[in-house]
Automatic annotation (TrEMBL):
Lineage: Bacteria, Bacillati, Actinomycetota, Actinomycetes, Micrococcales
Domain Response regulatory intervals: 5-135
Residues bearing PTM 4-aspartylphosphate: D56
Protein name, as recorded: Response regulator transcription factor
PANTHER family according to UniProt: TRANSCRIPTIONAL REGULATORY PROTEIN NARL-RELATED (PTHR43214:SF24), TWO-COMPONENT RESPONSE REGULATOR (PTHR43214)
UniProt domain HTH luxR-type: residue ranges: 162-227
Keyword flag Chloroplast: no
Organism of derivation: Rhodoglobus aureus
Length: 230
């Protein structure tokens, strides 16, 4: 059985203690530490090497988004041993925590590489499911759940469509990109584009690689930020 190493970064110590008890109740999860500010979260990521970090958006010293950017944007910063190379250090998956359902900071968190976000009042069962989901390589929030928030924020710019933002994609990949940007699942994309679901998954992987994106929610943000969806 693979054991998933989990850390928490939140300035509410009681909340952290609750998460610790929840994690320690699961045979396939291991609690590896808590941090109470953004700088401490970076140190924790370096020293404990968690597989998954639950990261509060708003924390003292530096916020969770800046901490996420530093953790995910500079993998060499996680190498504590001078003999280790950055390629040998696996980056943690980060789930952002927020108390606001329409928190615009979530958009910045997605850009920073977060795998999704959770409301802090969600159920313990959903927290556990989310940890396992991101560890398996999936986002913990359906892109359709963020479409309205992203649209509201990016439409204020009234920018013209920037077709060059997806110029690197093939014609079929552009079609799949736009379907994914509207929040469609792989099965729905396959049905709309008359392709198999496995082919849809392959196109999504290629799109993420070519556009240097890390998740399907980043596809949504990339589309709206570049005016590619009306």
């Amino acid at each position: 059985m693979t054991v998933i190493r989990v850390a928490i970064a939140d300035d509410q110590q009681l909340f952290c203690s609750g998460i610790q008890m929840l994690i320690e109740s699961q045979a396939d999860l291991e609690f590896v530490g808590a941090a109470y500010d953004g700088e401490a979260a970076i140190v924790l990521a370096q020293s404990a090497r968690p597989d998954v970090i639950l990261m509060d958006i708003r924390m003292p010293i530096i916020d969770g988004i800046e901490a996420t950017t530093r953790i995910l944007g500079t993998p060499e910063g996680l190498a504590g041993d001078a003999n280790e190379t950055s390629s040998s250090v696996a980056q943690p998956k980060i789930i952002m925590l927020t108390t606001f359902q329409r928190d615009e900071a979530v958009i910045r968190a997605i850009r920073a590489g977060a795998e999704g976000f959770l409301m802090k009042d969600t159920t313990p069962e959903f927290v556990l499911a989310s940890i396992r989901t991101v560890h398996a390589g999936h986002a913990v929030i359906a892109p359709s759940s963020t479409v309205d928030l992203i649209r509201q924020r990016t439409n204020r710019t009234n920018r013209e469509p920037a077709e060059e933002a997806i110029a690197v994609l093939s014609a079929r990949e552009k079609e799949v990109f736009l379907l994914a940007a509207r929040g469609l699942s792989n099965a729905e994309i396959a049905q709309a584009a008359y392709i198999s679901e496995s082919t849809a998954k392959s196109h999504i992987r290629n799109i993420l690689a070519k556009l240097a994106l890390t998740s399907r929610v980043q596809i949504v943000a990339h589309a709206y930020e570049n005016g590619l969806l009306s």
